[in-house]
Fold:
Amino acid sequence: MKLASNDIASDPAAADAVRLRQFEPGDVPAAHALSSALNWPHRIEDWQFAQSLGHGVVAERDGKVVGTALSWQFGTNYATLGLVIVAPELQGQRIGNRVMEAVLDRLAGRNVLLHATAAGVGLYERLGFVTTGEIEQHQGVLATLPTVAGRSGDHLRPLAAADIEALIAMDALGAGMHRGELLRRLFSQERTVVLERGGHAAGFAVLRRYGHGHAVGPVSAPDFDAARLLIADCCRHAEGFLRVDVDATSGLPPWLESLGLPRTNGVSIMVRGKVPERGPAHGSWALVTQAIG
Structure:
């Protein structure tokens, strides 16, 4: 299925009156209503941010948006895919499959990463995705503020304009893909703390408004202790509800639980194509969002 103007050209859905077309900025309120119906935490601002950085498809019936999927292209070889939703009353009618195929057509030639709930794994496997790991979602209201001592010589400071390109390169190593535009947007809008080691920026973490309160991520750090130091600083500046999505192998889940952020969900890391070199072993400790990666 190819995007032709605003419609999906070879949409086979005429029999059930479902039309596929490009996701437009004006679709954000309807998409937000869909996610709210499923008790997803996204604010309308979270949808606006995601849509402004990516491309997507909506499924529409009788003028009503009944399904969505968005993707984000990074560098020349990779993309992430998420916010795949079908209205509850229409699930089981292969609408999600058709929306996914339309998005994947646009990403032809790219390696694609997504994070799948248990309900979505089967669909993604049929589309050629394989599971490569797990992300644990930790959230709640902090029971205690963390006290983490940094390595001798490490200290935290605010982001400076001169840091930006180095931090983008650092993120690319940890994420396995170049995400310059995404990082510049986050740095310009959100609170970023930088870890300095040996006179050079060695890590960073972003604290931002998201969902029911705040979220920490991305977090880039050279080691476990540095990652905890950065996340601890974000915790001290957050108010109320806080969420952190981390790799299950990072070693961070027990520490996050000790702070009052229990594991509330887990999603599978799935890839179609070449698996990127990413995660804690490469310096990436927390996601931006499960959708964007």
